[in-house]
Amino acid sequence: MPERIRLDPPRPEDLRDLLFERGVEFPCGGDSLCGGCKIRVVEGDVPITAEMGAVLSSEELANGWRLACRAGASGPVVVEIEQWSVHVLTDET
Length: 93
Known about the structure:
alpha+beta; Ubiquitin-like (UB roll); globular
């Protein structure tokens, strides 16, 4: 089950540093190429960027999925971290 965390950015900014501090990794170095840093917005607003639209499907975006490496927020958000899900951590299909 994905872990939920609350983030309270002190000012409108990207969430990358806050997420990194909580253990989120950026497998492609934060270049938004792999989708390995997916998070799902549960509460709050994380706008969709062009980079997210190029990697995530329209269905994923509609369901609140965002790329952590490109995520920004102007207020508090609650996100689920997909990286820590069992199916992501194993090589089983």
